[in-house]
Amino acid sequence: MSRVEHDSYKESDCLCGQGQVTKHVASTDYPFGGADVRYTLDCSHCSRTWRLQGSGTFVDRATEQAAARAGEGAMALYRQHAALASQIIDRHMQALGPMTRKAELEELHRLGFSSATYAAYTKSRREGSSPGEAAHARPGSRTLLQIAGPDRADVERLGREIEAADAAYKEAGARVVRRRVGA
User: How far apart are the C-alpha atoms of 61 and 26, rounded to whole Å?
Assistant: First the structure.
């Protein structure tokens, strides 16, 4: 049985100089065990503006929250697209008439909306998913546009909005301010 030794020491001053960053190390006496390292920010002023990632990096809360909001906006658009695609695919499958589960899956494979195995697909259908809910149509899919019918304009609009939201998220992520502890 191995023992765990805990050590804590000042790693550096905080960014404003009124507090400090403390490094906490937990290591075992086992020769191949490695160590668990974490940092804490012991400054009431800096902790309102910054947070510490486990790797010892300061992250500006405001820019990080802006990136998170941009990501949430993009995810909301992806959910809207998935719901619309599900309706379109279900309508397409109904237009083809009654089909076996195997024929449904073959059609989804042909359209490029599924790579599921037969067992996974039938399990999903037994659990109550429709063919459209079991499918995965990506934004910008030409095949989805071809079968969209009256929803084509909505699919195109959502595709453009998703593209813009992804770019905004990427840009916001690049703007997140990070600084290494002690740098």
Answer: 27
Identify the bridge partners of residue 60 per DSSP, sorted by sequence position.
50
86 and 170 belong to one structural domain? yes
The number of C-alpha atoms within 13 Å of 23 and in the hemisphere containing its C-beta is: 15
**Using an 8 Å Cβ cutoff, are 130 and 38 in contact?**
no
Q: Where are the alpha helices (DSSP H) in the chain?
A: 46-49, 61-95, 101-111, 118-126, 131-134, 142-147, 152-174
Q: Please indicate, yes or no, whether the overall pTM of this predicted structure exceeds 0.85.
A: no
Are 134 and 46 in the same domain?
no
Q: Cβ(104)–Cβ(93) under 8 Å?
A: yes
Q: How many residues does the chain have?
A: 183
Whether residue 21 is contained in a domain is answered as: yes
Structure tokens at 29: 């006496």
Residue 146, Cβ neighbours under 10 Å: how many? 11
Q: What is the residue range of 49's domain? A: 4-55
* Residues 15-59 pLDDT 10s: 888 999 998 888 887 777 778 888 889 999 999 999 988 778 999
